[in-house]
Amino acid sequence: MATVAVQVAGGSDGIPLRLKLQRVEHRRTLGAFTLVLPVVLFVLIAFVWPIGRMMFNAIHDDTLLTLMPRTTSALSAWDGKDLPNEGAYAALVEDLKQSWAQKTTGVIAKRINYELPGAGGQLTFSARKVSTVSAGSYKAALIEVNPLWGQHDIWSVLKRGHSAYTGYYLLRSIDYQYGAEGQIVASPPQNAIFRDVFLRTFGISLGVTAATLLLGFPVAYLLATLPARTSNLLMIMVVLPFWTSALVRTAAWGVLLQDHGVINDVLIGLHIISRPAELIFNRVGTVVAMTHIQLPFTLLPIYSVMKTISPSYVRAARSLGAGPFYAFWKVYFPQTLPGVAAGCLLTFILCLGYYITPALVGGPADQMVSYFVAHYTNEDLNWGMASALGAILLAATLLLYYVYNKLVGVDRLKMG
Amino acid sequence: MTIYSRVAGALAVTGLMASALIEPALAGDQLTIVSWGAVYQQVLHKYVFEPFTRTTGIKVTEAVYSGEIAKLRAMVESKTVSWDVVDAGSNAWMMCDQGLLETIDWKKLGLDRAKFGDAGRFDCGVPGQFNSTIVYYDKKLPTSPKTIADVFDTKKIPGKRGLWKNPYPNLEWALIADGVPIKDVYKVLSTPEGVDRAFKRLDTIKNDVIWWTAGAQSKQLLADGQVVMTASWTSKEADKQFGTMWDAAQSGAPSYWTIPKGSPHLEEAYKFLAFAGSPQPQADLTREMPYGPANKDAMALVDPEVLPTLPNTPEHDAVALHMDQPFWIENGDELRQRFTAWLAK
Amino acid sequence: MQSLKMQHHALPVGGGALARQASEPGRASLSDSGDAFVRFSDIQKTYDGEALVVKNLNLDIARGEFLTMLGPSGSGKTTTLMMLAGFEVPTQGNIFLEGRSIQNVPPHKRDIGMVFQNYALFPHMTVEENLAFPLKVRKLAKAEIETKIKCALDLVRLGAHGKRRPGQLSGGQQQRVALARALVFDPKLVLMDEPLGALDKQLREQMQLEIRRIHEDLGVTVVYVTHDQGEALTMSDRIAVFSDGVIQQIAAPAELYERPQNAFVAQFIGENNRLHGKVVAMNGATCKVEIPGAGNVQALVVNVEAVGLPTVLSLRPERVRLNPAPGSLPNVFSAQVAEVIYLGDHVRARISVCGQDDFVIKLPNSEGLVQLEAGAAITIGWTAEDCRALEPS
Fold it and tell me: Do A and C share at least 3 CB pairs under 8 Å?
């Protein structure tokens, strides 16, 4: 009956029904798209593009290619076995002269220093002297100016400079580097810190996530079960930290945790300890301050899930013979898992990016990846390293999210 | 004469008034000067920026940074330089090296480069003041530190020490504490064994160090009792509040007035550099800041009472560790990398 | 009937006392709890220390009985159920299960099955896991658990759905699972708190019969809470009508319908015409009541005490006869039809009579139905027995 009606309706103006539906749907899709367009553009411009740009910086470095064009192109034919031929040396002399004139030697030296610590200084020295080198055997003259040019590894670095793309920064970020022959070798122990830093970043984030869960879960439960008046008051106390900047809160922890701070003074005053406990500029301070800042992020999703769990589930479990704890653990707790998972994921991912808090209340051995990103961006001006570390952190986070999705299922998350 | 001078005076006044009226409209007659903020910048404002505006009529817009080169680099690379003069510290050499600064034409400046001694050899700026990194300590300490070796001796003087989160002067100090004579420090530090030796010595106090990044932070740590002694930059308040130790105080790194490459107000910036490098403002600054004027002519204008607190007095100079800038330019990258890694371990 | 009325007046506050007499008229002493399966004894409950939600409740429930607590929301019926389940503590009084006080027995040790309004099926467990829950808690052997689950699923005709999660089942199916879960561990007593409230009408009626069947098959004692009088009438052995924290009347469905003891019960159970008047004469089982502006009505004495007191006459719409033969009924009045509604199996008419214009009559749609039209003048009448003189509430 319905089919007949539809056919009649579709046939009355000769346009197939499917087409009509498509048109209507198309118009609706277009309308919806117009609504989200500003947001899409904003995300593209303010998020996707810069991040893509940053990721690109991690593998893209054309310093040597653009600043030493002759040398790098002359080296493209070099087999990499013995020292390069006279032509390469001549090209080098030209490039060095030009760089000295254009004041780009510092940039080149810095780039060289990344891969061959100390060689940058020798390159600068050579560039200063290169005006004295005239035609003849450039090779001998350059080696005379600085023995660096008689070594194989500097040429290896320059040859790699022929490509605008380099794996150096990414390798360095996982404690590898190029060896003298261009092969990949482990970084020397005094520079091999990044695997530690990544592990530390994940370790601290995990610890803070666990701490916020342990502290937040009971509070969320109280909030969800207390009568509205009491729970509102408690809720204000929970979200109060949100209204203060993380910087101020972290500074406040400094006042509390320092050797002659409130906590130590009280503990000493009560004769619980005789000497100040070391609470700041170490892992303790870092985790405490981060936990404090992250607590609401873990707590609120759990709370919002708990709020939807009817008390009748626990009652049902009790009536079926389960004791209070058994009923809680087998019936209530599993239902809070989507909230627990959401809160923990949120906190964990936010923790991965922490910078200011460890910098203020942590010691040098508590600094996380973001600190090094900032360090390379601001102090060392090594933007390639900053990008590489950032890219690896991002990739690790996405990987983690993927695994998490496989295990828990993101569609089951409830943010509230 | 009287008539002429009166007419000239009237004309001058009219001209001044006219220019005063027009001035704000002329973007060319103002400078954006960036310095390090806090009390230091207030003093600069009082003794350098204001007198400069009074003398030249060029208005000064002040900004604050914390020494980060990244912002400057971004400006220069994108050719949108909004800073005209930058008060650079130890970062000056790197900025210059990276091609972020104008090379100074001393002839155009009208200052005698020789008056600045070694400090004047820098190509990209006019030296401002010398500031020493010295050691302040808690006056209540039973044993006060007398030498840099005491800073590295936690048995003799227990407690935390504050140090600047930077390879210099810590590597130098570590070697001096380890028995290297001050004059040989950079020779030793140029060898891989010397670097290892310095880090080894630093290892012995690694757990007793709190690393600071801003000068105010170091003094706060000492005032709070979080550390018993700290390396820091000299300041008038700290001189009163804490004990001072000048042994191996690191000097030789003056601040520099520099011009970012591509500054739109090059002429005015040169005028400012000439003014800031002249003896009077440099001497005036010492009234409130115990920094040594880089211009040797300024020393004669300094209040004799203030003189002993300055880093470049003969007594202080005799025990000082003069920072070897070329050494740090050449080896800075490598040592900084290693220092960063050492800290993170 | 007379004795009932007398009992009521002897215990003015005690709906419960009345209830007990109604069910077991022979039993006299409160302290004798030996033969009652569940006994509420002088139960009071307040949440805020001011208003009593349950006022002095006395109630006995027999083994194997299907007892329904019926009443509007806020009448105290659910609170009473929760006290029996152990989720609420009586402010005063005692509850006995099989003669033993369960005051200090926590809910999980009471061995009472419960079906909740929203079913409360554990969403993270399959149907089988839900059913296994009470059995695992009781540490039954695995084989026994499986057998019992199968039996329970068969009982509610859901044998094929054991592996599904509650979210994948329809409302009716979830209802059955909840029922099976409350029964699977062979509890002494099953409590049901408005279990069919969320179902549509047809399914609800089907489930009513299902529950009734299961009750009969298993012989389990059921205490059922609902605000739906039709549901209560369909399923119960006895119904306790709650209002304002007091049991107004407790009786078998037919008794309750036919002989409501007060105006509230009359109003709450079934449809009811109310005529306000004053007793002018008592004549044994019947009395004469004067309706202002309409004349006198002969009515059955239920709980009016004396001549001169106000009363409410309660008359079921279907007991009103249209155009009675003259002299065949004691009460005959002329009326005017205001509105007629055709309802298939019967016709409802709103008429004006005795100075009231919301008087409703129901006429079966049987052969020879007189056609009613709005505005028509008619005559109606009823017997004295069908018109119950009640104390005004």
Answer: yes
Domain C1-106+228-270 CATH class label: alpha beta
Close Cβ partners of C74 (under 8 Å, ≥ 6 residues apart):
none
Q: What are phi and psi of C387, to 5 degrees?
A: -110, 110
> What percentage of chain C reaches a pLDDT higher than 70?
90
Compute how many other C-beta atoms are within 10 angstroms of the C-beta atom of residue B218: 24
Domain B2-131+254-309: homologous superfamily in CATH: Periplasmic binding protein-like II (3.40.190.10)
Does B68 sit within 8 Å of A259, measured CB to CB? no
Sign of the CA dihedral A384, A388, A389, A394? positive
- At B212 the three-state DSSP class reads strand
Q: Identify whether the C-beta of residue B58 lies closer than 8 Å to the C-beta of residue B31.
A: yes
Name the residue among C28, C81, C35 with its Cα closest to residue C57. Answer: C81
A258 Ramachandran zone, left/alpha/beta (phi>0; psi -120 to 50): beta
* Residues C312-358 pLDDT 10s: 999 999 899 888 888 888 999 889 899 988 888 888 899 998 888 88
The pLDDT of residue C367 is 61
Extract the residue ranges of chain B whose pLDDT is less than 70: 1-28, 252-253
Q: Distance between CA atoms of B72 and B67, rounded to whole angstroms?
A: 10
Task: Give me the sheet containing C221-226, strands edge to edge.
Answer: C112-115, C189-193, C221-226, C66-70, C238-243, C246-251
Angle at C262 (CA atoms; ends C261, C266), nearest 5 degrees:
90
CB spacing of B69 vs A381 below 8 angstroms = yes
Crossing angle for the helix pair A86-102 and A138-145, nearest 10 degrees?
50
CB A197 to CB B210 under 8 A?
no
CATH architecture assignment, domain C272-390: Beta Barrel (2.40)
User: What is the Cα–Cα distance from B99 to A107, expressed in whole angstroms?
Assistant: 8
Q: What percent of chain B has pLDDT over 70?
A: 91
Q: Which of A57, A99, A103 to mutate to test the interface with B (most CBs of B within 10 A)?
A: A103
Q: Is C118 on the interface with A (CB under 8 A)?
A: yes
Q: Residue C312 is which amino acid?
A: V
Distance between CA atoms of residues C159 and C374, nearest Å: 55
Q: Which of C78, C87, C183 to mutate to test the interface with A (most CBs of A within 10 A)?
A: C87
Contact list in A for residue B344 (CB cut-off 8 A) is: 193, 196-197, 364-365, 367, 372
pLDDT tens for each residue of B102-123: 999 999 988 889 988 888 888 8
Please tell me the distance in Å from B103's CA to the nearest CA on chain A.
Answer: 10
Q: What is the DSSP letter of C117?
A: T
Single pTM value for the model: 0.79
Q: Where are the beta strands (DSSP E) in chain B?
A: 30-35, 59-64, 85-88, 125-130, 133-137, 161-164, 209-212, 229-233, 243-251, 254-258, 292-293, 321-322
Q: ipTM of the predicted structure?
A: 0.80
> HSE-up of C228 (CA within 13 Å, CB side)?
17
Which residues in B306-339 are b (16+ Cβ under 10 Å) and which e?
Answer: eeebbbbeeebbeebbbbbbebbbbbbbbbbbbb
CATH topology of domain B134-252+325-344: D-Maltodextrin-Binding Protein; domain 2 (3.40.190)
Establish whether domains B2-131+254-309 and B134-252+325-344 are of one fold. yes
Triad B343, A373, A166: Cα angle to 5°: 105
Q: Is A331 on the interface with C (CB under 8 A)?
A: yes
CB contact under 8 A, A197 and B344: yes
